[in-house]
């Protein structure tokens, strides 16, 4: 009756498929390959307890009081250091703390996008980024990907043709595609952004979860190297390497964007939970993060290898996939063109869920694709999941 | 150079005056009446420590993992009970947890306001609400207030004339005005909302900080009593009664608005810090909140009485004010029409800051007004602040 009162921008806003799937995934006996969540068994109980003790004993007043919209200064400094370790030179003042990457994207969309502005994303792309850009009433277009990530030549053809405001990309161990942008394409992408003057939104939640020794320089490092620092924004998070529940992420922004981002942060929620920020800061001070990351890498690599080899052995003739070099996701395509949204009903009745690929496209979805996460299931469950998928064919 | 890339909606977005003032207020020797922050000396150290212990020992996995966008179920149930105590009957399912009232307002604005829609606010009104509605590109208009809060007859003349989407109001111990909407006006306001079909956004951060035994029924209770539950949204927070730093607030929304609000919550930051939510839930379980509220009421009432009597004794002929019945703010007007924005420079040099009134108006500010908060200064500082104001005349 009164739904006509809703703002037009939210009328088409959908709940994410993952959200719906999480309901199924909690049914007894169902093995979930659907979530995008880290394995909670790997949370550093001891380290987080140490951090909590430090916060309560030495930061009590601060932890529960209002803070600055930019974020807790010492945490911004710690992130500056962490960024340097990733190859990004920036000032602590360039870092704005957010309540996770999702908020980073929402704030960036609000800072940059006028209704009708074009944002280019990968095919497939992170589903919740589509929600954010859709809420900002962007014209969302997509560029294909292959085993080396976004096909930058295809992007060039598009940007040379009509103006583009921003390109959104998860260049390293992407979600959902699992692919990583090659070094040559990274260089080309930042050159295009300089030549055609669009902003790159580099979303980097997964780069620490590297299964190899290969180093992937952030786009922001490449951009700065060619003097294109004004056209790149970098966002990352502690969600996949420490804790998603605390909701602590950050953006690194160029000077011209800083005031808008801080003002938006203030207008949207004043600041990120001081308690969460101090917990993160005190955790970093324990020096345990590198060990924690190494443990997560080992554990996820092991699960990936097990899962991939099971898939190849049991379903190698039915589906194909690019082998991820890191991250949390395996993106596959059914060789027979099976519609994975429809197939889900059958696999669910056999006790296994994944995310159908169609939700990761802004248009013209490939219905034969699917995203599987292998990080929360046990080894036995991963084997059993593959059997159940096979039995559902 | 590249600021032309900013979205048009953020180009006019200003940092709040409070933010700027907080810088001054930290200068050595300066007494701040400028902040809108609770007194951290009243934080319940022992209770929060108990809550933290409970979270770490019994909710460890949950506290650091992703959660539901609607909020932690047991906390939503606890808020349902707390709402019932305030006179609001609702289901736990009507409660959506947010990262503080500021986020509640932002989400509601995004859910309801199309660019150009009219939102009516009080004169004066909460400054950060003006930022939110301005970001939503609302047409913001205002209605005057007197000692009984918003002048609802003036509102009637306006809404009878042209359509209005929403009325934003802090009806109880308002910020900045310190006034409380009378019972008769509450009834009239919800009747108008029914007759002229606009949404009331009832912002209630302060009602527990009641200096009297008088009971002020929430607008939502009045609205439900006349079958107008579809035109009212209620938002509140733990910021003023427990801890602002954890950033935990909530909205109570009618059925037709629920999906949009939850989808927006998901799109903007997935969910509120699970750690903060569990801390709040475990704190509520200790049963200490009523005692904590009683202590805050006593302390703030004492400070208010001291400050008000000093003001009357020293500056009674220079400024006038309505006596607040609760809350954190005293709103005054200089009888000689002194411009308080300009005066601030002088009072600052004498070591006392307040917030000039002009920032709390959407247009045609009354430059002779000012907002003073008395809750963080010591008794001696309050007395000294009044002396310094007098010396600045």
Q: How would you explain this protein's 3D organization?
A:
Chain A is α/β, with parallel strands linked by helices and 393 residues long. Chain A has two domains: 3-43 and 290-391, Aspartate Aminotransferase, domain 1 (Alpha-Beta Complex), CATH 3.90.1150; 46-285, Aspartate Aminotransferase, domain 2 (3-Layer(aba) Sandwich). The first copy, chain A, is built from 15 helices and 14 strands. In chain A, the strands form three sheets. In chain A, strands 2-9-8-7-6-3-4-5 form an eight-stranded mixed sheet, sandwiched between helices. Chain A has a four-stranded antiparallel sheet with strand order 10-11-14-13. The first copy, chain A, has a two-stranded parallel ribbon with strand order 1-12. In chain A, strand 6 (166-169), helix 9 (183-196) and strand 7 form a beta-alpha-beta unit. The radius of gyration of chain A is 21 Å and the shape is globular. The model of chain A has no long low-confidence stretch (mean pLDDT 95). At the A-B interface, helix 1, helix 3, helix 4, helix 6 and helix 7 of A face helix 1, helix 3, helix 4, helix 6 and helix 7 of B.
């Amino acid at each position: 009756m009164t739904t006509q009162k809703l703002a037009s921008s939210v009328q088409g806003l959908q709940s994410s498929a993952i959200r719906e799937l999480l309901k199924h995934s909690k049914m007894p006996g169902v093995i979930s390959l659907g979530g995008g969540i880290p394995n909670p068994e790997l949370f550093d109980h001891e380290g987080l307890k140490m951090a909590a003790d430090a916060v309560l004993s030495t930061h009590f007043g601060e932890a529960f009081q209002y803070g600055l919209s930019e974020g807790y200064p010492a945490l911004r400094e710690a992130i500056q250091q962490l960024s340097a370790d990733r190859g990004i030179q920036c000032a602590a003042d360039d870092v704005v703390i957010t309540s996770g990457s999702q908020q980073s994207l929402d704030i960036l969309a609000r800072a940059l996008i006028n209704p009708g502005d074009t944002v280019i994303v990968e095919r497939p792309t992170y589903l919740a980024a589509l929600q954010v850009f859709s809420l900002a009433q962007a014209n969302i277009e997509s560029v294909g990907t292959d085993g080396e990530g976004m096909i930058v030549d295809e992007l060039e053809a598009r940007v040379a043709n009509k103006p583009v405001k921003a390109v959104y990309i998860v260049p390293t161990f992407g979600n959902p595609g699992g692919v990583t942008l090659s070094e040559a394409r990274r260089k080309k992408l930042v050159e295009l952004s300089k030549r055609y003057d669009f902003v790159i939104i580099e979303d980097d939640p997964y780069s620490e979860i590297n299964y190899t020794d290969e180093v992937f320089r952030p786009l922001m490092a490449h951009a700065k190297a060619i003097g294109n620092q004004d056209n790149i924004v970098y966002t990352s998070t502690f969600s996949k390497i420490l804790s998603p529940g605390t909701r602590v992420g950050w953006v690194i922004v160029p000077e011209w964007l800083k005031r808008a981002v801080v003002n938006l942060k203030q207008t949207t929620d004043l600041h990120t939970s001081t308690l969460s920020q101090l917990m993160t800061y005190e955790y970093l001070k324990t020096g345990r993060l590198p060990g924690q990351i190494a443990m997560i890498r080992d554990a996820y690599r092991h699960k990936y290898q097990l899962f991939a080899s099971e898939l190849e052995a049991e379903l190698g003739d039915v589906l194909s996939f690019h082998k991820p070099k890191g991250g949390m996701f395996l993106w596959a395509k059914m060789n027979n063109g099976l519609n994975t949204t429809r197939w889900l009903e059958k696999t669910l009745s056999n006790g296994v869920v994944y995310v159908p690929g169609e939700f990761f496209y802004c248009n013209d979805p490939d219905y034969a694709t699917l995203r599987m996460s292998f990080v929360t299931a046990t080894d036995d469950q991963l084997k059993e999941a593959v059997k159940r998928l096979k039995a559902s064919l």
